[in-house]
């Protein structure tokens, strides 16, 4: 799993994958990462350990699987990761920097991604950003926060000014942007602001199902090949 920016291009992560057919679809479309939820209380896409292991072992050409969780216990997370083929873990909760460091120490070769929660244009973790930057996090994901019952998949876009402020602190080379992004929004952002990538959930779906046409358009926008007139 290489986390670095490509010139004038974003990496693409599609979150909430639950079936092998979806993984194969994302792989064919050129998506970089698929998010597999586990230990997300009341999460509509959350998987048990056996489901996670099975999906993470799906033979794929380039797509890599990222485990997404709100769990805080390093031992519990490590048990889910053990024997899986996950390339990384995404912490979607409010783990403090010391806890994040403990989790990182248990992951072995897995990369660590940490969600930063944005509420009304304000990063809730802002006072701790420099500590997070030093505790082993490989990449950050900026996502809107409404409540602990709905901490992501809001469909609401984060203000550009907020994104730019966080880029100034953390650098663009390890920031993913989530929240309300569609293909044209991605293309507009990509042309004006360098980032590591985008993390898409509801924007890749029709009636809660991941849609191949939407995914292809997202990838085209992220790579700079979207036909704006389409």
Structural write-up:
The protein has 230 residues and is an alpha/beta fold. It has a single domain (14-208), classed as TIM Barrel, CATH 3.20.20. It has helices spanning 20-29, 49-56, 74-81, 97-105, 129-133, 160-170, 183-192, 212-223; strands at residues 11-15, 33-37, 64-69, 88-91, 111-119, 122-123, 139-144, 175-178, 197-200, 205-206, 209-210. The strands form two sheets. Strands 1-2-3-4-5-7-8-9 form an eight-stranded parallel barrel. A two-stranded antiparallel ribbon has the order 10-11. α3 (74-81) packs parallel to α4 (97-105) and α7 (183-192) packs parallel to α8. The longest helix has 12 residues, at 212-223.
What is the 3D form? globular
CATH architecture name: Alpha-Beta Barrel
Mean pLDDT value: 90
Largest sheet: 8 strands, parallel, barrel
Counting structural domains, the number is 1
**Count of beta strands:** 11
Strand fraction: 15-25%
